Amino acid sequence: YDTSLNEELMPVLNQLRARGAYASMHSKPPSYSTPGYGVLLTGAWPYLSDAPPFNVGYDATPVLTQDNIFSSAKRHGLKTAASAFYWFEKLIPAEALDAGYFTEGEDHSADQAVVAAALPWLTAQETQLILIHIDQMDYAGHHEGGPKDANWDAAAVRVDALLGEIVSEMDLSQDVIFVCSDHGHIDRGGHGGNDADALVEPFVLAGKNVLPGNYQDVEMVDVAPTLAAILGINLPASTQGRVLTQMLDLPTDVS
Question: Model's pTM, two decimal places?
Answer without folding.
Answer: 0.96
